[in-house]
Amino acid sequence: MSILDEAVKHFSAKGERTIEVKEWNAVFTVRPLNLDEQRRLYEKSQKNPIESIVDLIIMKCLNEKGDKAFSINDKQRLMTQVDPNVLADLSSKITGDSTIELEKKT
Prior knowledge:
Layout: H1 3-13, E1 17-21, E2 26-30, H2 35-47, H3 49-60, H4 75-81, H5 84-95
Antiparallel strand pairs: 1-2
Helix pairs in contact: 2-3, 3-5
């Protein structure tokens, strides 16, 4: 097995984890952020750090069936009709141990 194969295997082994949002009576499944996702979120956070929180949630939250819990069509409602503190907490839990600077901006 090549070093690259080992690196891919290591990342794949990180697996999914669940995040409970009691305020919404919801549980989401999230997969670790890959470098490309981190790059996109970092670029977005440079332009609009608040909006990048919602983009992260749309990108990473899966429902119990493994489907995206939110779509881009939900973005405006998430931005304007949802408790920003819950969104910030959820985004911090999603990023977890990632190196993305998003957490520091919330």
